[in-house]
Structure formats: C-alpha cells, structure tokens
C-alpha cells in the first residue's frame, strides 16, 4: 500500500499556474504628408495617395517621421524615390504611395522632398475612414472587436436574424476609371423598407472616386434583402488599382553594358527566381532595375550593386534578391562587371484583385 501511494504521488500532475488574461491593446497607424518642395520651392499636388493604415500590437508603439527624396518628370510623376536617411523606412507603403501620387506638370524637377508624420491612435480614437480602410485590406491581422464596434452603425441592420441579400447588385467596374497605383473604395449607408428595398442611400466614407460612388449607390438601390424594415445598414464597394507602368529606362540604364571582364556571358544555369515586391504588387506598380555583379568561377553571383532603378529604390533592392538566386555555369576564371536588367511587370489586366476580397458583416 505504501508503494502504491508513493507512485500515485509521483505521477500526479500539478494544475497549471493561473495567469490572468489581459488582451493586448491594438492601435492604428496612419500617416500625414507634409508640404512638397523641389529645390526649396513648393510644388502643387494634384493627387496625393495615402499610405495604407496599419494595425499595431501592444501599447507604447512609436514610429519616426520619414522623409523621402525624389525627382519629378515633366508629367508630374515622381521618380528616383528613396529615403533621405539610409535607415529602413518605418512603413513599407510610403514609397509606393508616393510613386502613385501626381503633381503639377511642367519642367522636370530635382531635389524634391516630402516628409510623412505618423499618427498612432487607439482604436477608440482612430478615424472611422481609417478603420474601414483597414477592414478592406487587413494586412496586420484581423480587426479587433473594438474596431468593428466603431465601424458598424447604430440601428437594427445586424439584429438577429440578420437580413440576407436576395439580390446583391454590383457596379459594372469595367466602366469605372480606376486610379493608377491606388485602390478606391466607398462605403454606402442605407435603410430597408418592409419589402427589403434600400432607402436613403448615400455615401458616408470613401476615397472620393465620383464614378465609383455613383455606381455603388445605384447598385445598392437595385439590391433586395430579407428581414423587413431595417436601419443602419452599410456595404463597401471597392475598385482595384489601375496598373501603373514603369518609367522609361534612363540614359544610365540604357548605357550600362557588360564590362571587358565579363566576356561572352552564357545563359543562366539556375534562372533567377522572379518575385514581385509585395507593397507594389498590391498597388499594381511596375518597375525596373539595372544590376552590376561579378560571377565566381563556380557560378555563384556576388558583389551586386544597383546601377539604376525606377520608380523607387525598392526595385533595386528587390532586383538584387532576384539576381542573387541565380547561378551561371562554372568557368575557369569567373567574371566581373557583368550587367543585367530586371523588369517587374504585372500580369494581364483581368488578373484577380491583388488585395483580395473585403471582410463582410458591416
């Protein structure tokens, strides 16, 4: 009996310790752009695209302001975009947002700069439009309930049983002009009558695309729902970006050739793994880079550097990653001063929305 008791004592597992649960606070990060100057003179903005909002986890989060330097071509398109400081930008979407922006046309300008200032707000204080924008592209995790509670309207639309769409009309997106490099969206508010017909339709938030706003309201009016009379309903419609093609090759890019120590370069033994930089894929922004590199006798590529890249330095960084994944056939002495171009080209225009579908239950 003593042996049995001892064995039982040694085989009993103590209960796990109790730790009180505290939900990690979440905050929303957005960015505001300062004045744009080129050679010290202010520049007129004709279409400034906002960087995407981000969900931050944990209290006490901070971000530094970031200044980007760039040039403007005669059409007002930003080129040669790069951070002023060598540190990594505090948001991966700052340079892509600037690349999609537009300024007054005129002569080419250089020595341009813009500073983005962060705004970090608790979900209880974040702008409603920013909260909605995040739910449409939740790249940093699911929106917490606190955020959804602020996005959803007061009313009976979400009371159980929730109304279901008997007919969800959609705009003819083919006839709506999309914004190059920027995803447009609109949130339509409406009530329904006893027969499930939308009433009082109007736009409450969005990116300000008039054609999308009008088409979204028409689609909402044509929709039909179950559930009888309801108040405080809303639904988002969104339009993928129009493809923003890369700038033309610069003179430096066209002039870059294999050097005398890179003669008769053969085809790749291992082709480069072509991967598109994700922030630019979401915005459908194309680019290119010219890379100079050496090749070891065993075929490994090294000593990579960027000769030129457009519209941002990010395409040069990504091109280095692409080229580093390749190998050439072994040779007796290796090669140096080799040059190659990497083009980042989107698929056909009928490709699926690169940002994916929005999250329902608004």
Describe this protein's structure.
- The chain has eight helices and 17 strands.
- It is of the alpha+beta class and 362 residues long.
- Strands 1, 2, 3, 5, 6, 7 and 9 form a seven-stranded antiparallel sheet that branches. Strands 12-11-14 form a three-stranded antiparallel sheet. A three-stranded antiparallel sheet has the order 16-15-17, with helices on one face.
- The termini are far apart.
- Residues 1-14 have low confidence and may be disordered.
How is this structure best summarized?
With 362 residues, the protein is α+β, with helices and mostly antiparallel strands.
Radius of gyration: 27 Å
- In CATH, the architecture of the largest domain is 2-Layer Sandwich
How many domain regions? 3
**CATH topological fold name of the largest domain:** TolA/TonB C-terminal domain
Characterize the overall form. Answer: elongated
The string of secondary-structure elements, in order, is: HEEEEEEEHEEHHEEEHEEHHEEHE
In whole angstroms, how far apart are the ends? 65 Å
What is the name of the CATH superfamily of the largest domain? TonB
- Tell me the quaternary state: single chain
Runs in which pLDDT lies below 50 for 5 or more consecutive residues are 1-14
| Structural class assignment | alpha+beta
What is the makeup of the main sheet?
7 strands, antiparallel
Number of helices: 8
Mean pLDDT: 90
| Record field, number of beta strands | 17
Please write the CATH class name of the largest domain: Alpha Beta
Strand content: 25-35%
Q: How helical, in percent, are the residues?
A: 10-25%
